[in-house]
UniProtKB/TrEMBL annotation:
Active-site feature positions: 200
UniProt-recorded name of the protein: dTDP-4-dehydro-6-deoxyglucose aminotransferase
Source organism phylogeny: Bacteria, Bacillati, Actinomycetota, Actinomycetes, Micromonosporales
Keyword Transferase: yes
Keywords: Aminotransferase, Pyridoxal phosphate, Transferase
Sites of N6-(pyridoxal phosphate)lysine modification: 200
């Protein structure tokens, strides 16, 4: 355990971990089951195009969510595009800026204009009052994002969009297995999108899914994901190839089998982080509503630089020097990224404040109790002596022999 600033790898000490530990390591699955499924697919000589494993995966996800339709896709980014395309969105799409670039890029790729709205600072998700104020005659839809698995205020967003006659979709990339007011995420708005990327709590190597109770919409996205074949009225763009392969479905099914155990492990990780990082002024682990279900996929820590004397970016660099690959989820926010930054100015004070203060710490089934103890030891040492650490780091000679300048 590290006791002094000089023990930190940033100042020449040994790294706490010999190998990197990550936020997004794929969770453990039953390999024998995966190989059985892959072997079955090979024997079956059917490898993609709405195969039996993909259909089984769709049924499992639809049952889990309690929704009429699930269309599995090759990833979530394309699934968002399919939804926008299938519903013929035009003009502007309102969304949060505090999200992964995929949410914004998906609609921009179709020639739509993302309009970034501020968040409710208590949840990190879209503020429905800001959404109502951002609606213009050019708005065709709102995309909410259940950030870090914490659901949006779905009732408020449903009301705002229904009053304005707009489509409402949710990017639920982080939120499989979570609930809002006891109802599973996946059942809100006109449709929701899950991600099954390798780094997600349920993974299909790469994968996504659209879930909806709208049968016609499901039929349209399924057809568009298969080159537009089977559509009564052909889409102007024809369609694309967004199908989930049988190999991905085999992984997705095996990962779904493991999900209850992974979620339990993640919850224990989360609770350990909360315990070990409690009562540190200026540092908090973001919380989850106690009466809802969560997947605890991300452990997000918020750091106040004024109280701790330590900027989030310096904490991330310091952790990375220890081989703890913390992530800035999500910073910069989308409106601070190109191609959005130079197109339009957005006033998003809550987004900018939170985006500059949060980081994700390693969790998932690869992370042990001892790993968390060691990560928290580093964080506690750094944060409790944040002013001194920052001053010392500023004195460090940079590559040109000059002292380095602290971020932010
Ligand atoms: N909407 C939202 C809100 C999202 O967060 C995302 C994706 C999407 C939409 C789009 O979903 P997909 O189209 O991807 O289905 C990662 C993921 O790649 C990305 O899927 C995810 N969100 C985002 C939050 O995280 P990056 O750029 O942070 O890093 P990446 O994928 O290179 O790796 C993250 C960490 O995981 C690294 O520390 C290394 C580790 N890792 C990664 C892979 C791929 C592993 O240990 N093993 C692996 O196989 O995006």
């Amino acid at each position: 355990m590290k006791r002094d600033l000089g023990d930190l790898a940033l100042f020449g000490g040994h790294a706490s971990f010999l190998q990197q530990i990550h936020v997004g390591r794929p969770n453990r699955i039953d390999r024998a089951r995966l190989f059985d499924r892959l072997s079955w697919a090979l024997d079956n000589e059917w490898l993609t195009n709405n195969g039996p494993l993909a259909r089984e995966f769709e049924e499992r996800v639809a049952d889990m969510v309690g929704v009429g339709n699930c269309v599995a896709t090759c990833n979530a980014t394309v699934a968002l595009q399919l939804l926008a395309h299938a519903t013929e969105l035009t003009g502007e799409v309102i969304m949060p800026s505090l999200t992964f670039a995929a949410t914004a890029h998906a609609v921009r790729w179709l020639g739509l204009e993302p309009v970034f709205c501020d968040i409710d600072p208590r949840t990190g998700c879209l503020d429905h009052v800001a959404v109502a104020a951002a609606i213009t005659p050019r708005t065709s839809a709102v995309f909410g994002v259940h950030l870090w698995g914490r659901p949006c205020d779905v009732d408020a967003l449903e009301k705002v969009t229904a009053d304005a006659g707009l489509r409402l979709f949710f990017d639920a990339a982080h939120a499989i297995g979570c609930t809002s007011q006891g109802r599973p995420v996946g059942r809100f708005g006109h449709a929701e999108v899950f991600s099954f990327h390798a780094t997600k709590v349920v993974n299909a190597f790469e994968g996504g899914a659209i879930v909806t109770d709208d049968d016609d919409l499901a039929h349209r996205v399924r057809s568009l994901a298969n080159f537009g074949f089977g559509l009564h009225s052909p889409s102007a763009a024809g369609g694309t190839n967004a199908k989930m392969s049988e190999a991905s479905a085999a992984m997705g099914l095996t990962s779904l089998d493991a999900f209850p155990e992974v979620a339990r492990h993640n919850q224990a990780n989360y609770e350990q982080y909360c315990g070990e990082l409690a009562r540190i002024p200026g540092l908090s682990v973001i919380d989850f509503a106690p009466d809802e279900r969560h997947n605890y996929q991300y452990v997000i820590v918020e750091i106040d630089p004024d109280v701790t004397g330590l900027h989030r970016d310096l904490l991330v660099d310091l952790l990375r020097a220890e081989n703890v690959v913390a992530q800035r989820y999500f910073s910069p926010a989308c409106h601070q990224l190109e191609p959005y930054r130079s197109r339009q100015q957005f006033q998003l004070p809550h987004t900018e404040r939170l985006s500059a203060r949060v980081l994700a710490l390693p969790t998932g089934s690869a992370i042990s109790r001892e790993d968390i103890r060691r990560v928290c030891n580093i964080v506690r040492l750094a944060v409790s002596r944040g002013f001194e650490l920052t001053a010392r780091w500023q004195q460090q000679p940079g590559p040109d022999g000059q002292s380095v300048v602290a971020p932010g």
